Amino acid sequence: MEIALLSLSSCLGCQMVFLSLEEYLYELIGENKVVYAPFLMDRREWDHADLALVEGTVRNTEHFLRAREVREKADRVVALGTCASFGGVQGLADLYPESRLLRSRFGDTAFEGGPQGVKRLLPLDSFIRVDAYLPGCPPPVALMERFLRAAVAGDRLSREGSTVCAECGVTSPPLPQPGPRRLTDGAGEPGKCLLESGFVCLGPLTRDGCGALCPTEMGVPCRGCRGPAGRVLERAGVDMEAETVRRLSRATGKKEGEIRAEVADPPRTYYLFCLAEPLLRRRRSGGTSHYIHRLGEQ
Ligand code: SF4
Ligand code: SF4
Ligand code: SF4
To answer: Which of 162, 163, 164 has most ligand 2 atoms within 8 Å of CB, for mutation?
Structure first.
């Protein structure tokens, strides 16, 4: 199988995971042919790949042309990482107008003849057809290995169906609990659900696959880096913010309005990795749309 691996606007973190595959990396490149991977090999031209893994987002016209070229040359295109799948942390750029972002980074420098920026950050599948998704910021090594084994075997590459909570294995604390709590208020009780302990944990709304790494191994809440679970994307009534506030209200015994008032910076709290996801933006109630450019309009 011919494999291409490339990035658009990204931090290269997802490709670093590819390099961390250790023994499986040797097996993969021994049994298949890597035809294009600028960070691995000095080869500028490629004609075809059976599988292309694309990391990052489309931020300008050059990225768009690169994405379109991949679509033309590759039989199957995979959105690698949460940036490519849902916009990732880069989606937070949509809180501000593009002009303000450019000014804050480059001052009054005028760029002539370079690529034009895209007005709004969106996931890769808003620009080209994507066949499969491997979200994660970055995706865990074991998950990437499983995914690649299935891909080179020609298996169907479907989105995972459950949530981080299904992998978590904690128990409920007695309610009500104090909250909403921040990590600076002290750690939760080991083995107890962090959301029911009053922390903003996005586990119930985040797709499975990481083994609930943050709550179980580090004792910190899930921030949603694997992106929204299928039910969040597919069901019109499910909203990250509204659902988490409702659960926190139940855990703490406080009114939902009080919870909303006490949680600072809702876009970065509830939509840190998915503010750019169009399916979430289109929700009539809640959703992310009311945050877009909010700060820029002040
Ligand atoms: S998903 Fe995370 S690790 Fe991957 S490119 Fe985006 S920011 Fe980097
Ligand atoms: S700690 Fe978070 S991920 Fe674990 S069960 Fe509770 S809400 Fe779900
Ligand atoms: S627990 Fe949540 S934030 Fe942590 S790795 Fe898993 S999906 Fe990402």
So the answer is: 164
- Ligand 3 site, residue 212, Cβ cutoff 6 A: yes
Ligand 3 in reach of 214 Cβ (< 6 A): yes
Ligand with minimal distance to 199 CA: 2
pLDDT tens, 166-221? 999 999 999 999 989 998 888 889 999 999 999 999 999 999 999 999 999 999 99
Contact 241, 202 (CB under 8 A): no
If one residue of 165, 207, 213 were mutated to test the ligand 3 pocket, choosing by the most ligand atoms within 8 A of its CB, it would be: 213
| Residues 53 and 100 placed together within one structural domain of the fold | yes
Task: Supply the pTM of this predicted model.
Answer: 0.94
* CATH number for the domain harbouring residue 57: 3.40.50.700
Domain containing 221 equals 164-263
CA angle 233, 238, 239 (to 5 degrees): 90
Please compute the mean of the pLDDT values over residues 65-71 and round it to a whole number.
Answer: 97
